[in-house]
Amino acid sequence: MQIFGVDIGGSGIKGAPVDLDRGDLAQDRHKVLTPHPATPDGVADKVKEVIDHFGWSGPVGVTFPGVITDGTVRTAANVDKSWVGVHIEDLLRERLGADCPVTALNDADAAGVAEMSFGAGKGRTGTVILLTFGTGVGSGLFTDGRLVANTELGHLELDGHDAEKRASSKAKEDHDLSWSHWARRVQKYLAHVEMLFSPELFVIGGGVSRKSEKFLPLIEGIRAEIVPAQLQNNAGIVGAAMRAGERDGQV
Known about the structure:
alpha/beta
């Protein structure tokens, strides 16, 4: 049972067919660079390029770095602002054709759905928060396994700025921060999120999760358990495919 998943990010767009039984990629993913500016038409062309690479025909799940309600983009933090108000599902259906019905959701929500079903959050109850550290900071909030969609906790204020401007992996790269310096910023951010939501578990995702041993041991003073995402940077692709499979009646 396979569904195609695409993860749209601020720097790259990647996708692959997903085995929904295993919760893993069925083939190696294909990645292209996100166009700049990342306009709706430009991104849609790149999504089509990723899907055409596999010759895929069938349902497609797509993540987006912003709030999506009823298929419509409401915020666009790390892509072009012209996305706001666009019905992303209709746009991509028109670009991909009738053989590829599209389901779209927030990128961190998608990663969280995958981690709660197949990864670090599997079987966990209470409050679980997945945080993706990449171009920005995305969040997926779960209570007893149920998703509270579109939380956007990366935009909480930290030191007078959006938290993602201080604690994202892009901020680490832009300011050439050491792992220990960046870990202190992440620690301060986690303490703020913990004060607001009192989670039992933080799951740390995004591309930086592949190097979790370099910074997670440096984080102190957080009561919640902190673990790296098991699906790492493939979680968004898997979660998008899962959501599309649900709509298609295959999950």
